């Protein structure tokens, strides 16, 4: 049996360790991506498995102007599906974080946010917005007279664009709720 020097056995082990470490570091941002809760499940849960029939909100020119003020661009759809039961409405909305859409589920009850949840996150960074420490900030938030959120939302270092997208969608859901609350 040939003698193996300690130095020669370390080289393959060190190379494998470095490869494994590089692979883990490269895979970490991708792990943030994913469907945390399918929108259909969010709708079912929000209405105790008995959701009302969906309705449509048409984004006419006047409403699209308000949307543009909030988002900085038009919403990419001409109409939005929503679910409403008395003074409670549910919205599944999307906004680009940095490069990819983030899908949120937002329930508004009597003009204030009741539930705020990240359903699908597609960005490579910023997925911290899905955690309760962030989403709880939206509990009972409404729109003030200027169309801004009634309380401030703390940012997350490294997730600035995701936080901004989430905040814009919260404002949007509250605006849309105001539009439909007085409809039959």
β-strand amount: 15-25%
Helix content: 25-40%
Number of separate helices? 5
Silhouette: globular
**pLDDT average, as an integer?**
88
How many angstroms does the end-to-end distance come to?
Answer: 88 Å
Major sheet strand order:
1-6-5-4-3-2
Structural class estimated from helices and strands: alpha+beta
Summarize the structure.
With 184 residues, the protein is an alpha+beta fold. The chain is built from 5 helices and 6 strands. It has helices at 6-32, 39-46, 61-71, 132-135, 160-180, and strands at residues 34-35, 55-58, 79-85, 88-96, 101-109, 112-121.
Question: What are its keywords?
Answer:
184 residues, 5 helices
Folded structure, characterized:
This protein has 5 helices and 6 strands. The N and C termini lie far apart (88 Å). It is globular, with a radius of gyration of 22 Å. Helix content is 39%, strand content 22%. Strands 1-6-5-4-3-2 form a 6-stranded antiparallel sheet, with helices on both faces. The chain is α+β, with helices and mostly antiparallel strands and 184 residues long. It has one domain (33-180). The protein has helices spanning 6-32, 39-46, 61-71, 132-135, 160-180, and strands spanning 34-35, 55-58, 79-85, 88-96, 101-109, 112-121.
SSE order and pairing:
Blueprint: H1 6-32, E1 34-35, H2 39-46, E2 55-58, H3 61-71, E3 79-85, E4 88-96, E5 101-109, E6 112-121, H4 132-135, H5 160-180
Antiparallel strand pairs: 1-6, 2-3, 3-4, 4-5, 5-6
Helix pairs in contact: 3-5
